[in-house]
Amino acid sequence: MPTTSSLLIRRARVLLPDGEFLVGDVLICDRSIVRVAPEIAESADREIDAIGLTLLPGVIDPQVHFREPGLEHKEDLFTASCACAKGGVTSFLEMPNTRPLTTTQAALDDKLRRAAEKCLVNYGFFIGATAENLPDLLSANPTPGIKVFMGSMHGQLLVDTEEILEPIFAAGDRLIAVHAEDQARINQRRQEFAGISDVAIHSQIQDNQAALSATQLALKLSQKYQRRLHILHLSTGEEAEFLRQEKPSWVTAEVTPQHLLLNTSAYANIGSLAQMNPPLRSTRDNEILWQALLDGVIDFIATDHAPHTLAEKAQTYPNTPSGMPGVETSLPLMLTQAVEGRCTVPQVANWMSAAVAKAYNIPKKGQIAPGFDADLVLVDLDNYRPVLREEMLTKCGWSPFEGWNLTGWPVVTVVGGKVVFEKGKLDPNVRGEALTFDTDM
Ligand code: DOR
Q1: For residues 319 and 312, what is the distance between their CA atoms, to the nearest angstrom?
Q2: What value, to the nearest 5°, has the Cα angle with vertex 420 and ends 414 and 422?
Q3: List of the chain residues with pLDDT < 70
Q4: Which of 16, 49, 81, 152 is the most exposed place for a label (fewest CB within 10 A)?
Q5: Which of 314, 245, 312, 306 is nearest to 278 (CA)?
């Protein structure tokens, strides 16, 4: 006999789908939200008194690199999902640059099997495009979409010429998510700046123009075939202004907290920990990206969580790898911006959950309403705490935001109706589910 379990969150400040707040109770039965009301009389197996806390839909992080299989010295699906649970991230979409690459159904199935065994939160995996795997791209299932690295990648996953890109855009109709950097321009500039070991040169080698020209090419192909396109981690003011003029209804774009909140001045403070692709830009780019996000030109937020060990980061540029972790800090970073007046809490919840569920057609996620999945995060908007290296759960053990004093830290995270994180403690026995991607939504 299957047993049912119920959870009642009492006296929370609950964010409703219309963007209003209700101080009240949320009843969860098994995996689903069943009722949201000012006061629910009945009792449940488990009750949480959430007085003073704000209840938000769990974060759906639509771009992460969790390194399993093959690169588990940096991260694995267990450590990454622990970091997610602590950060209020209840679902993630993971990228194909693992070893082996996720370019076949067999590799996708292997990741799904591994995740079912060890992931504390919900999961989905992109299929990676190569010059040769069009049949796999058309049939892969379940997947949020096709990941195309137009630049910043080597080997099979680099799909950097119009000749190779065109058939991928022409065949099928599933979402294509692009890492838009122009590899030919990057190669040329790498030669021009060869011999410079100051990591700050990274932002000049992979410059704004490299990002803009790749975004323009992806958009041109998307327009030609009316193909659903998502532009990953937009980093430049130029791309944002271009999309403000040119973005068709079937195109979405995302930005990372680091491209909003960090810029090239970070190299002086944290050196290669600030190195990522696409690189950090200027304060002017920060400002234009913020405005584009507020205006809806940019649709949502992803972390691009891409951990590398401190030993790897301690090498000399250009041998230092690009990428930084993010799932533990993204929600408090953005909620701190909201508390400090740059945006609102409902906007943050939309950018980090509802808008992602909508863009990727993930059913029953992103809202606190009856019938929706009980993926939730209770946050404390009244207390500030610094980001501390020793508290990081990501295997890489560092954050580019160390020392930043943030509010909005998760107090309780619920995945599928189960409390997975509470007041600093994880329940390592909770398991997420494979996400589904509804084509008829
Ligand atoms: O900085 C980055 N690192 N950008 C990417 O697109 C890939 C990632 C990685 O996997 O390390």
Answers
A1: 8
A2: 90
A3: 1-2, 440-441
A4: 49
A5: 306
Question: Measured between alpha carbons, how far is 52 from 29 in angstroms, rounded to an integer?
Answer: 23
| Residue where a domain stops, chosen among 309, 339, 359 | 359
152 Cβ contact list (under 8 Å, min separation 6): 179, 181, 183, 186, 206, 277, 278, 322
Please give the single-letter amino acid code of residue 256.
Answer: T
Q: Which residues lie with the beta carbon below 6 Å from any ligand 1 atom?
A: 65, 97, 152, 179, 276-277, 304, 306, 321-323
Spacing, Cα 275 to ligand 1 middle (Å)? 10
152 and 226 inside one domain = yes
**Residue 431 placed within a domain:** no
Residue 201 lies in a domain: yes
Residue nearest to atom 9 of ligand 1 (CA): 306
- The reported pLDDT for the residue numbered 440 is 57
Considering the domain architecture, whether residues 116 and 262 belong to the same structural domain is answered as yes
What pTM does this model have? 0.98
226: left (phi over 0), alpha (psi -120 to 50) or beta: left
What is d(CA 327, CA 91) in angstroms, rounded to the nearest whole number?
11
The residues assigned a catalytic role are 304
Mind listing the pLDDT tens digit for each residue in 106-162? 999 999 999 999 999 999 999 999 999 999 999 999 999 999 999 988 899 999 999
Res 24: pLDDT: 98
